[in-house]
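Incident review: delayed structure delivery

Summary: a single-chain prediction request sat in the queue longer than the usual turnaround. Root cause was a stuck worker, restarted by the on-call engineer. No data loss occurred. The affected request and its eventual output are reproduced below so the record is complete for anyone auditing the incident later.

Affected input:
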Amino acid sequence: MNALRAPLIIVMMLIPYILLTLRSFGFLSGLGANPVETIIHETGLWGIRFLMLTLLITPIAYYSGIGSIAKLGKPVGLMAFFYVLNHFLSYALIDQAGDIGVIIIDIIETPYLIVGWGGFLCLFGVASVSFKRLEEWFSKNRSTISGLVYTAAILGAWHFYWQAKVVDFEPLIYSIILTVLIIWRFRVTTNRKQ
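Output delivered after worker restart:
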């Protein structure tokens, strides 16, 4: 992958965050009647979108025959973590005013928050081993990393679907994409072992 492309792709993936920041300062029609909910919702939405894109990169590289596309998985995955981290921090610091006791009780008492927290921890684990000095370990444990990313995506889609409280089209689409990707991954892995 061209060294120039990764920073350009990262800047492009930051556009929703920049637009959300501008909206929080009152530009572009603002954040609406419930600004905190808008920030939490938007950061979570972009987190799951980029997580889905992360999982789609491998099959795209596989079928296109362009191996360099696969190298985008790490930066796109880290951007997904960036949005999910902001999603959690917006909830914890803005909505709950950083009150650890309230946050813990809220997570324990709210099933969709338990699921979301599990997905966040999976992504946190992956992001924490993504540093350059751990690159060799990352490469050797690619299947474990991949499993954590898939688990985070499943929990993230479940969290999104559950908190919507109504049948929403977008979480349903993510569930279908995830199902297809899991079946594809299983078939590819099984074929490699034969």
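Verification: The two ends are 31 Å apart (CA to CA).
Action items: add queue-age alerting; document worker restart procedure.
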